[in-house]
């Protein structure tokens, strides 16, 4: 179903161009502008998104002809992948194009990941689809375990994956969690996103997700596309999302990227943001709350302070007095706390900490 | 069982020191020297390992007292983890030590990962155990799918993980694949290690591991400790191991680190090397073999050439004429080939390539 819809959109784009040529006009292609000037934080919806400005790419324009041709080639090739029902990475797409178009296609076209990304982003925003819908895979990074069962229709097979039966490890979050993937039995009451893999492993050993009936996810740092989509889908079926990171600007920014997106990812919009997400820690306030943490803080480096200052300037963050307070404490006290520090007195304290924060609704917006 | 053995070793270390003190002597601690001068390639066994030189650390020695104390503290704390039957990361261990020993323990002691690693490495080589045996978790990175069933005893539960029922993704390879983990039903006939996650996903979509009856692993670049142990254990039960990487010095070095270890990892010895491993590609020879690859090569950068030159100097590599030939081709032709390029003509060619290489025994030692 998803595929048929995507194929139609790609065909529509081609048909429009053919008509333009038949009418004696230069083929054009309209795409929302992704530059800073067209990115806005929409307070009503709670995420960063593109504004109304669009850009028209013309084939008969010396500066645009090359990119135009590349975009059409990408659209044509991904349509082939959809019809073949096969997937590949952006790098695999590059080699397919290089092979078809011959050596005249400058290698550097796709050599820079940023440049190739730009072409895909053009198609995503212009057609209102995700690159995963174009059968392009992305790198996997996060892991999941917890009280849910997934029905996975993939490569002509139907597989049932019980995320509560993953033992000492977890199911690696796939590149595409949408097409052909269903949640058939979600017993969990909430989603817990834990920045670091080490803490995920600690909580998994405590069987925290079982005792507390949740879905335990680690993005392993900044969340991959697949991980963000998984969290979004779980939020869509009504599960609250709690995020737990280091107490420093970098950890907090992992939270904000999950919640509102970021400038670079604004083109993704609502599909990849979770404005409902809540932050349960670690906070600067925890230093006063938990006596043992006092001697486990780390001195913030100048770059940590600089990043905290930058975050204070983001209009999607500084509208929350709680966050302004936290960031100002960083600037004043010049300290940070790793989530690992919660194990300092007792390894199993991490779970107690999370229970207290969620139970008492001690979260930040 | 593993735990009881490790606890005995830690107790033995402590008992020796207590006896030394009672006898009026300075406590000492003997550990194999891990410096370059004591690392050798043992051709008979096929991996890099430490030689016979040892080093005695003395408590009553100004230069060593601090490290000595730290090592004893680590041994003491990890014994506690073993008795509690709980695991944590090196970072979790650091915070436990910092909490117990108070603020006098200089934070910078464990601030540098290299310094904390050195203490753990001391204990590993001195006691002949792995850090995983000390209940220390490491970061997870690789993924596995294929024809095998794992019985996992963990956190008081027994779980059965069928690696052939992972759908579009895979089971994340855990930190510790030894203690409490058994392979109960390995139908696979060999292990295929694929450098890049993108290629793993491609082969997983083709159900290559099912059609060809193998275990498909991606280390996602250099292999983690858990991934290397998993490959080692599968080789121990008689499965041939084939490695498939990019055709450049970096990809090839991923193979060599799996096969023989590396200078930095020589202290790990036989537990983390797979001398039986074979290399199936991509090779410089493939450029002549496969016509379509000719236009899909990439120009090697000066750093690629430099790295290839260095590899030619490694005595564990330059004993193989096949590898000398490959490395010299890189120096002469100044080209490289990504494994992704095999998809250039046809996405599903990757599987055909692997079948041809293994079927015709076209591998490098």
Describe this structure in words.
Two copies of one chain form a homodimer. Chain A is built from 13 helices and 17 strands. Chain A is of the alpha/beta class and 365 residues long. Chain A has two domains: 2-137, Winged helix-like DNA-binding domain superfamily/Winged helix DNA-binding domain (Arc Repressor Mutant, subunit A); 143-359, 3-Layer(aba) Sandwich (Dna Topoisomerase Vi A Subunit, Chain: A, domain 2), CATH 3.40.1360.10. In chain A, the strands form six sheets. The first copy, chain A, has a six-stranded mixed sheet, sandwiched between helices. A three-stranded antiparallel sheet of chain A has the order 9-8-11, with no helix packed on it. In chain A, a hairpin with a 4-residue loop joins β2 (39-42) and β3. In chain A, α2 (65-84) packs across α5 and α11 packs antiparallel against α12 (321-333). Chain A starts with a helix and ends in a 6-residue tail after the last helix. In chain A, 43% of the residues are buried. Chains A and B meet through β5, α3, β8, β9 and β10 of A and β5, α3, β8, β9 and β10 of B.
Number of helices of chain A: 13
Helix/strand/pairing category of chain A: alpha/beta
The radius of gyration of chain A is 23 Å
> Which consecutive residue ranges of chain A, at least 5 long each, have pLDDT under 50?
none
Strand arrangement, major sheet of chain A: 10-7-13-12-14-15
Q: What is the element string of chain A, with H for helices and E for strands?
A: HEEEEHEHHHEEEEEEEHHEHEHEHEHHEH
Fraction of residues in H or I helices of chain A? 40-55%
Using a beta-carbon cutoff below 8 angstroms, give the protein chain pair with the largest interface and the number of residues from each chain.
A-B, 64 and 63 residues
Shape of chain A: globular
């Amino acid at each position: 179903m998803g595929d048929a819809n995507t194929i139609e959109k790609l065909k529509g784009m081609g048909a429009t161009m053919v008509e333009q040529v038949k009418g004696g006009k230069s083929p054009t292609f309209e795409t929302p502008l992704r530059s800073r000037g067209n990115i806005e934080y929409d307070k009503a919806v709670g995420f960063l998104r593109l504004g109304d400005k669009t850009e028209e790419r013309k084939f008969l324009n010396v500066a645009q002809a090359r990119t135009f041709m590349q975009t059409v080639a990408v659209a044509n090739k991904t349509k082939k992948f959809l019809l073949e029902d096969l997937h590949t990475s952006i790098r695999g797409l590059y080699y397919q194009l290089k092979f078809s178009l011959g050596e005249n296609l400058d290698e550097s076209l796709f050599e820079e990941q940023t440049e190739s990304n730009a072409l895909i982003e053009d198609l995503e925003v212009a057609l209102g689809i995700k690159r995963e819908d174009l059968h392009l895979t992305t790198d996997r990074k996060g892991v999941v375990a917890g009280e849910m069962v997934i029905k996975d229709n993939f490569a002509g097979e139907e597989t049932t994956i019980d995320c509560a039966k993953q033992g000492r490890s977890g199911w690696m979050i796939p590149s595409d969690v949408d097409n052909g993937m269903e949640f058939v039995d979600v017993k969990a009451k909430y989603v817990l996103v834990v920045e670091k893999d080490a803490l995920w492993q600690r909580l998994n050993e405590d069987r925290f997700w079982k005792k507390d009936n949740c879905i335990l996810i680690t993005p392993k740092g900044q969340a991959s596309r697949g991980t963000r989509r998984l969290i979004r889908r779980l939020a869509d079926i009504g599960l609250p999302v709690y995020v737990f990171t280091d107490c420093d600007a970098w950890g907090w920014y992992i939270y904000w990227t999950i919640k509102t997106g970021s400038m670079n990812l604004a083109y993704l919009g609502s599909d990849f943001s979770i404005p409902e997400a809540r932050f349960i820690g670690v906070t600067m306030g925890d230093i006063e709350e938990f006596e043992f943490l006092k001697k486990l803080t780390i001195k913030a480096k100048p770059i940590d302070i600089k990043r905290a200052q930058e975050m204070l300037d983001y209009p999607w963050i500084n509208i929350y007095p709680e966050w302004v307070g936290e960031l100002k404490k960083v600037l004043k006290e010049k300290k940070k706390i790793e989530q690992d520090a919660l194990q300092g007195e007792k390894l199993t304290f991490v779970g107690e900490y999370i229970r207290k924060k969620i139970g008492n609704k001690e979260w930040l917006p």
